[in-house]
Design a protein that fits this description.
8 strands, four-stranded antiparallel beta sheet, about 80 residues, globular, OB fold (Dihydrolipoamide Acetyltransferase, E2P), mainly beta
Amino acid sequence: MSDVQTPLPGTFYHRPSPNDAPYKAKGDAVAVGDVIGLIEVMKTFIEVKAEAAGTFGGYVTENEAAVTAGQVLATVDA
Protein backbone atom coordinates (compact mmCIF):
# COMPACT_ATOMS: atom_id res chain seq x y z
CA MET A 1 0.00 0.00 0.00
CA SER A 2 1.23 3.48 -0.85
CA ASP A 3 0.17 6.69 0.87
CA VAL A 4 -0.58 9.82 -1.15
CA GLN A 5 0.65 12.78 0.89
CA THR A 6 0.21 16.50 0.51
CA PRO A 7 3.38 18.37 -0.45
CA LEU A 8 2.19 21.57 1.28
CA PRO A 9 -0.39 22.88 3.75
CA GLY A 10 -3.78 24.17 2.60
CA THR A 11 -7.32 22.94 1.98
CA PHE A 12 -7.78 19.53 0.34
CA TYR A 13 -10.48 18.90 -2.26
CA HIS A 14 -11.57 15.51 -3.65
CA ARG A 15 -13.26 17.15 -6.69
CA PRO A 16 -12.26 19.66 -9.37
CA SER A 17 -15.44 21.66 -8.58
CA PRO A 18 -18.41 21.23 -6.21
CA ASN A 19 -20.66 19.82 -8.97
CA ASP A 20 -18.14 17.28 -10.31
CA ALA A 21 -17.54 13.72 -9.18
CA PRO A 22 -14.45 13.00 -7.05
CA TYR A 23 -11.22 12.43 -8.97
CA LYS A 24 -11.13 8.80 -7.80
CA ALA A 25 -13.50 6.33 -6.16
CA LYS A 26 -12.49 3.32 -4.08
CA GLY A 27 -11.48 0.50 -6.45
CA ASP A 28 -10.58 2.76 -9.40
CA ALA A 29 -7.36 2.06 -11.28
CA VAL A 30 -4.57 4.55 -10.55
CA ALA A 31 -1.57 5.27 -12.79
CA VAL A 32 1.52 7.20 -11.79
CA GLY A 33 0.74 10.88 -12.28
CA ASP A 34 -3.06 10.57 -11.96
CA VAL A 35 -4.61 13.52 -10.16
CA ILE A 36 -6.35 12.43 -6.96
CA GLY A 37 -7.17 15.84 -5.52
CA LEU A 38 -6.37 19.53 -5.19
CA ILE A 39 -4.70 21.59 -2.49
CA GLU A 40 -5.81 25.22 -2.29
CA VAL A 41 -3.27 27.70 -0.96
CA MET A 42 -4.14 31.41 -1.08
CA LYS A 43 -6.66 30.94 -3.95
CA THR A 44 -4.14 28.89 -5.96
CA PHE A 45 -4.98 25.25 -6.70
CA ILE A 46 -2.20 22.66 -6.90
CA GLU A 47 -2.87 19.16 -8.22
CA VAL A 48 -1.96 16.23 -5.96
CA LYS A 49 -0.79 13.32 -8.12
CA ALA A 50 -0.30 9.64 -7.38
CA GLU A 51 3.32 8.52 -7.23
CA ALA A 52 2.47 4.80 -7.45
CA ALA A 53 0.22 2.73 -9.69
CA GLY A 54 -2.43 0.35 -8.39
CA THR A 55 -5.99 0.41 -7.09
CA PHE A 56 -7.39 3.43 -5.28
CA GLY A 57 -7.91 2.48 -1.63
CA GLY A 58 -9.87 5.60 -0.73
CA TYR A 59 -9.52 9.05 0.73
CA VAL A 60 -8.17 9.25 4.28
CA THR A 61 -8.74 13.00 4.60
CA GLU A 62 -12.22 14.52 4.35
CA ASN A 63 -13.15 16.79 1.45
CA GLU A 64 -12.47 20.49 2.18
CA ALA A 65 -10.35 19.65 5.23
CA ALA A 66 -7.40 21.78 6.32
CA VAL A 67 -4.17 19.78 5.87
CA THR A 68 -0.53 20.15 6.80
CA ALA A 69 2.52 19.27 4.69
CA GLY A 70 3.17 15.51 4.69
CA GLN A 71 -0.34 14.56 5.80
CA VAL A 72 -1.76 11.39 4.21
CA LEU A 73 -4.66 12.22 1.88
CA ALA A 74 -5.44 8.86 0.28
CA THR A 75 -4.10 5.34 -0.25
CA VAL A 76 -3.21 3.33 -3.34
CA ASP A 77 -2.96 -0.47 -3.13
CA ALA A 78 -0.15 -1.75 -5.37
